[in-house]
């Protein structure tokens, strides 16, 4: 008699190891009864190289012995082919074709194959999808022509690979029995050993096992016993009411690049999507969701037949094209406008290609989430946000998984994240605040496996104590969640950024790529601004298509493993080539717009036309090639002579230029007036704004802000001292900086060389050369006579590893909060270590600047391409470089050029000109020398300006679907602000719209002025029709 035949629950029944017995029995079913017959398919023909299917037979094929030959090398692409003939005994059955794995040689992502059967792309094959049904009803002697497109990369395995295949048939009754047993067994194993649910399940499963004649000689005896066991399980195990409903969303998380290059991603996407379509044929209830418009665009161009199959499944409602973004982008480093374009370009693609309007921001794997996102999300027509990554926090667990996320402006978005990794020792813990629903993204290459789909079929019936699964779209899940939490005043709200306590090093790793990103974002801001203005005031044709194609490359390279610096070196070779193309095209378009405007400006002889692409009147340094004539005067628009300075073949002068416009400076004959130089020597400098003292190594010993009479660092030490910290994280080298990085460091203060390079009426420039191990750091310190900031330009020849290089700026203020520039605003963070949440933020993100102030005085460090910084204990310490070696042994070991600017100010950051200075450092004034113009445009012009200084006019572009001008502006200092936007052209009509340039509402207008009120940190977008 079985132990479980007794009529009571024995809490000590695990002494009989029955769950292990059942597990072994399942394993035996799989090995002894699954496959009814099999046959090897023999040798292959082989062709090396990367070809399309259409090109497969354009070269020579060579024999490949499946027992003796090997394949695979670094970035290997090849083809295999063979003809398979169905044996007579296979007739009338489904025939599977399988690549036989060699376990020591297969990895989760490597190798990967795609199989074509009789000329049709059928399915991807990988370690999780090793077989494919080539026919459901075989005919004896039927032949199948098999082509296999294979990829492998030797970096992931030590030996070469074999290629061997077989065909086989299966016993569907054995398969059913196996999954009928294993699914509830795995559920039971999640319970504690003495729970009633576990005991009940194990009891029923053990009874079913006892009913099966696994050793029967006659196969029909086995099949009959198996059917009886399945019938028993259907009655005793299945059909039970679950405690919750688990919404299962089929998904494959495809990294656009990481351990593979973009070209491999194109194939990877094709393989994965083909597998999904194949499994949809086998499982009629299977629903799949995939984000990232870029992936669909790859498939559209590379696999047009596959793409049509996807479109058909989307129409049927079984394939969900969601996610909203062009790629799953990093949100710490990408600019605000770039994030808008992720949604604008992504959503337009999904709508134009599939007729769907995305409502979910799907970002499961990004390394932190900016506090600017909720407003961007909602104003992009998106209602829901989903992630999983915050569950990776090192110190603190986010206290809920369903909540409303509130951004810096107060916008809230319904958010949900999956807190676990798919299994839990106590699954109920994962449901504690999820309102009886749970989104289960399946992050397996190729999508869910047959095993997953078989489990889901059974869990959907209901198993005691287990959630009942429902195959669903992500949209359905969120819409149901919205209903469930609607009106619930206890639904939590999380205010501010979703800071990931992990992967902090990605704010700095792969510095050149981050610089490319910043420069591309800024350049395309300028291209769009001047192109839109040129079209509005003249006959210039706005380069819509060219801009879009280059924006797509910028957006592509903001993927969350490219921009953060966590990919293999080949990814950055590809990325650099794309960025160089983007920058080249951008400069060409910019030059075209500038030339079009200059050709229409009234000029009185040889002149400099200076363009300002920013939304405020600007007084800043202008620089261009020096005129050939040695003696000349430089006159402003009023005819007044202004000082200039020639240095290194360039002319430097301070230009005053109106917002989104230009000014003309005339090059006149005659010698320039003897303007006073900066008062400077090797020991220091005196300007209108500062008193600067250097020590004997050209470190800044004292920086006195004249207006406030305050020394920036007081008695705290050198300002901007370089410190090399040992940077050896115990895991995730390219991703992480750990809290113990401060344990060992070395100051870099000694100057090998120092000199006052140039001094004149515009600026004094100092040069210091410093050495660290094998690396050389050159600093050029620009101290301007009439500007309130100091620029330090770095040229770093970096050759060292495992070092985090920081610049230390001690600030003599009383502040326990610091302010950081982020997208469309700024964010305060604690400078203390009072709580574990404060402690965890020992490296945080910034965009253009970080500021530390009290109510009377403050100091900001501005940058032109850096993102990582720590601000604790009265010190601002931006991270200049890291040098991890994990995926990329030579990462960042090359020449770097970047700028940090020092900006002391009176009062808090909102009382200063910090926002404008941050833009000034990142967006140059453009100077065009010309001696001929036209008669249409005046020499000083502003296309648009704002009446309030805290309103930033961020973007000027032409609308996507009309010739109207789009103007995007935001409030930058958390102040409700009435504002008028004055247009320097005749306005026909104006409306306010969302970030997607939709849902127009007429704007209040008086002539060429738009009257509006900005809420704190609010982003507003206007669509303006200009009279030509």
Helix and strand arrangement:
Elements (H helix, E strand, L loop, with lengths): L17 H16 L1 E6 L3 E5 L13 E3 L11 E10 L9 E5 L12 E6 L2 E6 L5 E5 L7 E10 L12 E6 L1 H17 L7 H16 L7 H18 L8 E5 L12 H21 L5 E3 L2 H10 L1 H13 L2 E3 L14 H19 L5 E3 L10 H6 L5 E4 L14 E5 L5 E6 L19 E5 L8 H10 L8 E4 L2 H12 L7 E3 L15 H27 L6 H13 L12 H30 L8 E6 L5 E8 L6 E4 L8 E4 L2 E8 L3 E9 L9 E3 L2 E3 L3 E5 L5 E6 L4 E2 L9 E6 L18 E4 L4 E7 L3 E10 L2 E10 L5 E8 L5 E8 L6 E6 L2 E6 L5 H5 L3 E2 L3 E5 L3 E7 L4 E5 L2 E7 L13 E12 L7 H9 L3 E5 L9 E3 L1 E3 L4 E8 L6 E7 L5 E7 L3 E7 L7 E2 L1 E3 L2 E6 L4 E8 L2
Parallel strand pairs: 11-18, 11-19, 12-13, 14-15, 15-17, 16-20
Antiparallel strand pairs: 1-10, 2-3, 2-4, 4-9, 5-8, 5-10, 6-7, 6-9, 16-17, 21-26, 21-47, 22-25, 23-26, 24-25, 26-48, 27-28, 28-29, 29-30, 30-31, 32-33, 32-38, 34-35, 35-36, 36-37, 37-46, 38-45, 39-40, 39-42, 41-44, 42-43, 43-46, 44-45, 49-52, 50-51, 51-57, 52-56, 53-54, 53-57, 55-56
Helix pairs in contact: 1-2, 1-3, 2-3, 2-4, 2-10, 3-4, 5-6, 5-7, 6-7, 8-13, 12-14, 13-14
């Amino acid at each position: 008699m079985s132990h479980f035949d007794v009529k009571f629950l024995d809490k000590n029944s695990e002494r009989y190891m029955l769950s292990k017995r059942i597990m072994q029995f399942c394993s035996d079913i799989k090995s002894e009864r699954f496959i009814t017959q099999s046959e090897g398919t023999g040798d292959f023909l082989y062709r090396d190289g990367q070809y399309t299917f259409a090109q497969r037979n354009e070269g020579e094929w060579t024999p490949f012995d499946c027992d003796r030959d090997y394949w695979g090398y670094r970035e290997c692409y090849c083809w295999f082919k063979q003809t398979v003939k169905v044996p007579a005994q296979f007739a009338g059955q489904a025939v599977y074709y399988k690549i036989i794995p060699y376990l020591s040689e297969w990895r989760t992502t490597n190798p990967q194959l795609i199989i074509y059967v009789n000329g049709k792309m059928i399915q991807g094959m990988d370690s999780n999808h090793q077989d494919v049904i080539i026919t459901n009803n075989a005919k004896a002697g039927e032949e199948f022509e098999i082509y296999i497109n294979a990829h492998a990369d030797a970096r992931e395995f030590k030996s070469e690979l074999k290629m061997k295949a077989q065909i086989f048939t299966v016993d569907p009754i054995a398969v059913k029995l196996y999954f009928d047993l294993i699914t509830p067994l795995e559920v039971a194993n999640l319970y504690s050993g003495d729970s009633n649910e576990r005991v009940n399940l194990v009891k029923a499963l053990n009874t079913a096992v006892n009913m099966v004649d696994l050793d029967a000689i006659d196969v029909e005896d086995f099949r009959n016993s198996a059917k009886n066991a399945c019938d028993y399980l259907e009655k005793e195990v299945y059909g039970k009411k679950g405690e919750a409903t688990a919404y299962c969303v089929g998904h494959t998380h495809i990294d656009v690049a990481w351990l593979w290059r973009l070209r491999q991603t194109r194939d990877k996407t094709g393989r994965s999507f083909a597998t999904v379509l194949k499994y949809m044929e086998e499982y009629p209830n299977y629903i799949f969701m995939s984000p990232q418009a870029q992936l669909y665009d790859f498939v559209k161009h590379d696999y047009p037949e596959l793409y049509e199959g996807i479109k058909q499944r989307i129409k049927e409602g079984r394939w969900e094209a969601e996610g909203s973004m062009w790629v799953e982008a990093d949100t710490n480093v990408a600019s605000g406008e770039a994030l808008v374009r992720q949604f604008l370009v992504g959503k337009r693609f999904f709508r134009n290609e599939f007729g769907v309007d995305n409502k979910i921001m799907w970002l499961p794997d990004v390394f932190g989430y900016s506090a600017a996102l909720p407003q961007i999300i909602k104003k992009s027509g998106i209602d829901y946000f989903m992630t999983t990554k915050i569950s990776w926090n090192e110190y603190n667990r986010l206290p809920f998984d369903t909540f409303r996320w509130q951004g810096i402006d107060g916008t809230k978005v319904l958010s949900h994240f999956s807190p676990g990794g798919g299994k839990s020792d106590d699954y109920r813990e994962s449901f504690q605040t999820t309102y009886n629903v749970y989104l289960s993204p399946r992050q397996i290459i190729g999508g869910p496996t047959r095993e997953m789909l078989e489990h889901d079929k059974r869990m959907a019936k209901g198993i005691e104590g287990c959630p009942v699964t429902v195959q669903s779209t992500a949209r359905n899940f969120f819409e149901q969640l919205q209903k469930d939490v609607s009106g619930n005043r206890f639904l939590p709200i999380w205010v501010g950024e979703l800071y990931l306590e992990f992967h902090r090093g990605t704010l700095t790793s792969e510095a050149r790529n981050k610089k490319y990103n910043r420069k591309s974002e800024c350049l395309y801001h300028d291209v769009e601004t001047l192109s839109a203005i040129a079209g509005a005031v003249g006959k210039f044709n706005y380069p819509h298509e060219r801009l879009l194609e280059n924006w797509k490359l910028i957006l592509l390279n903001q993927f969350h493993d490219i921009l953060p610096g966590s990919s293999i070196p080949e990814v950055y070779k590809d990325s650099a080539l794309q960025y160089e193309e983007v920058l080249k095209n951008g400069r060409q378009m910019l030059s075209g717009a500038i030339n079009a405007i200059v050709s229409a400006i009234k000029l009185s002889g040889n002149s400099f036309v200076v363009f300002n692409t920013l939304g405020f009147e600007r007084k800043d340094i202008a620089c261009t090639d020096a005129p050939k004539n040695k003696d000349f005067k430089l006159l402003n628009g009023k005819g007044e002579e202004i000082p200039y300075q020639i240095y290194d073949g360039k002319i430097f002068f301070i230009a005053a230029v109106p917002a989104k416009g230009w000014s003309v400076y005339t090059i006149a004959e005659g010698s320039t007036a003897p303007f006073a130089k900066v008062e400077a020597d090797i020991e220091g400098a005196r300007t209108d704004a500062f008193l600067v003292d250097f020590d004997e190594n050209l470190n800044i010993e004292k920086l006195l802000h004249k207006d406030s009479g305050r020394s920036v660092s007081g008695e705290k030490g050198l300002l901007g001292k370089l410190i090399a910290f040992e940077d050896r994280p115990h895991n995730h080298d390219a991703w992480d900086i750990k809290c113990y990085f401060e344990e060992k460091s070395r100051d870099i203060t000694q100057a090998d060389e120092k000199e006052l390079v140039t001094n004149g009426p515009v600026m004094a420039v100092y040069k210091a050369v410093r050495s660290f191990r094998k690396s050389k750091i050159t600093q050029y310190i620009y101290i301007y006579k009439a500007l309130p900031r100091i620029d330090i330009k770095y040229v770093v020849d970096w050759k060292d590893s495992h070092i985090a290089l920081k610049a230390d700026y001690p600030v003599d203020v009383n502040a326990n909060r610091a302010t950081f520039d982020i997208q469309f605003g700024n964010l305060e963070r604690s400078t203390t270590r009072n709580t574990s949440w404060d402690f965890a933020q020992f490296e945080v993100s910034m965009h253009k600047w970080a500021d530390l102030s009290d109510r009377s005085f403050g100091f900001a460090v501005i940058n032109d391409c850096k993102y990582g910084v720590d601000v604790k204990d009265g010190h601002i310490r931006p991270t200049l470089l890291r040098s991890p070696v994990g995926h990329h042994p030579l990462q960042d070991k090359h020449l770097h050029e970047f700028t940090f600017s020092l900006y002391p100010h009176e009062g808090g950051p909102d009382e200063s000109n910090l926002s404008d200075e941050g833009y000034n450092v990142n967006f140059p004034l453009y100077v065009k020398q010309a001696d001929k113009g036209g008669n249409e445009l005046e020499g000083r012009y502003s296309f648009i300006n704002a009446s309030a200084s805290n309103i930033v006019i961020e973007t000027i572009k032409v609308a996507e679907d009309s010739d109207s001008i789009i103007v995007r502006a935001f409030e930058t200092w958390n102040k409700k602000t009435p504002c008028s936007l004055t247009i320097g052209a005749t306005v026909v009509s104006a409306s306010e719209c969302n970030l997607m340039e939709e849902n127009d509402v007429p704007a209040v207008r008086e002539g060429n002025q738009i009257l509006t009120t900005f809420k704190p940190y609010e982003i507003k977008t206007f669509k303006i029709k200009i009279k030509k």
